Amino acid sequence: MTVPSLETRGLTRRFGSFTALDHLDLKVEGGKCVGFLGPNGSGKTTTLKLLTAMIYPTEGECFINGIPSHKDRTGALAGAGVLIESPEIYPSLTPNEALEMVADVRGIPPSERRGRIENVLSEVRMSDWADKKVGKFSKGMKQRINIAAALVHDPPVVLLDEPSTGLDPRGMAEVRSILRGLKQTHRLIFMSSHLLSEVTDVCDEVALLDHGKLLFYDTLANVVSRFSKDQGSVDVTFDRSVDSTAVRASAGIPPTVTEISQLGANQLRLKFSGGAASKKIILKTLVNADLGVVGFVESESALEEVYLSQVSRGE
């Protein structure tokens, strides 16, 4: 089985005197979710359009699953599902009808279309709306159908351009939940975003782009550890109400924890020193204390600190 992959080599795009993307070298492999971070205008959408041959590079080349996008666009895109700038769906169509059109364009045999459409509608949790007119849908529901359209040919690589931007909180939560589900299918999900909470919530790795240049690409944990000067912050969720003072007293929290703050009735934020080794001890201590830990993730604030420090350097 071929490992899904994306690669750019010296990828550059200029618009007149403006350099939107500056010699981007990036290689991503395997089933995972990668957050492509950067402020507005940093070159994220330009990169996605270059990868999918919507525009052509000034210099360099790019590949989807080892196939050069600009030399063999059809071959490269056969293995990719793409959602860039949220296309509109004809309001008079139902999801079934809209996805039937996409399946036809993608060359899916008629005998396979019904099964594929049912599967992707289930993945995006829209099966109950399959025969309703799209014109009556909320923006979040339409976005879920757009994601389904990107998945209908079962691609190993999925490229998403800020998939939850412009949605209300419920719509954003629904899209993020779908993305977490897609991670279980061993696809490579490459998702541009400027929402740090989104990246922290669903991504395994993060690449930061600013002024068209790649600043770093690594796992989320390594990025936070590498740029936070041995300081870290994790959000811990419990299956019951907890009190920050009681947790410190009862769980034997190590002295590397410098601060515990209450985020909600069943959620705490722990700031600590000592890097990844300290974080490992903290998690082990909390689990051994049988406090009902059900979530342990890098804090959004930790990534935010890294983001702001690195982007400001590029200005």
Fold topology:
Elements: E1 5-15, E2 18-29, E3 32-37, H1 44-51, E4 59-64, E5 67-68, H2 73-78, E6 80-83, H3 95-105, H4 110-123, H5 139-151, E7 157-161, H6 169-183, E8 188-193, H7 196-202, E9 205-210, E10 213-219, H8 220-227, E11 231-238, H9 244-251, E12 257-264, E13 267-273, H10 275-288, E14 293-298, H11 300-313
Parallel strand pairs: 3-8, 3-9, 6-7, 7-8
Antiparallel strand pairs: 1-2, 1-4, 4-5, 9-10, 11-13, 11-14, 12-13
Explain what this protein looks like in three dimensions.
With 315 residues, the protein is α/β, with parallel strands linked by helices. It is 37% helix and 30% strand. The protein has a six-stranded mixed sheet with strand order 6-7-8-3-9-10, with helices on both faces. Helix 4 crosses helix 5 (139-151). The relative contact order is 0.13. The mean pLDDT is 90.
Strand content: 25-35%
Task: Report the total helices.
Answer: 11
Radius of gyration in whole Å, from Cα?
A: 21 Å
The SSE order reads EEEHEEHEHHHEHEHEEHEHEEHEH
Mean pLDDT value: 90
Structural class: alpha/beta
Annotation, overall tally of beta strands: 14
Low-confidence stretches: none
Q: Alpha-carbon distance between the termini? A: 43 Å
Shape: globular
Helical fraction equals: 25-40%
Strand order of the largest sheet: 6-7-8-3-9-10
Largest sheet: 6 strands, mixed
